[in-house]
Amino acid sequence: MSARYRTAAVNRDGGDGVSSVIGGLEVPVSSPLARDFDATASNPEQLLALAWVTCLNATAQAVVAGERRTVVRVEVELHPAAARSGYEFHVDAYLSAEGASIEETAEILTAAHARCPVSKLLAAASTVHVHPEEYRAG
Q: Any idea what DSSP says for residue 42?
């Protein structure tokens, strides 16, 4: 089966410099671990959060067929890796659905998490979790 969409990105500078989509978006990046961290630039934590929050909520909207509003919030933390060198992400996604009980919200979240391509990439990680929560518009 052929791809429905394809893109590519490149980074030549590591954690500090520019990451770009080939032929498109350029994103200044700065590592939060750097001594001269640039808070106006993006970092992998933010980019991961943006990718998953967008994908998971778009999938949730497909699950509810646009019949109610959904809000997804993703939090990404950088931690020293346990029993390994380096670092690891701890990632939590929170989904709320307007007018839905917490049980209904959990069902929407389960369905969206099973279908979302970014969720599929992250699903096997022990540091990734999803949570239903009461609806809040922001």
A: B
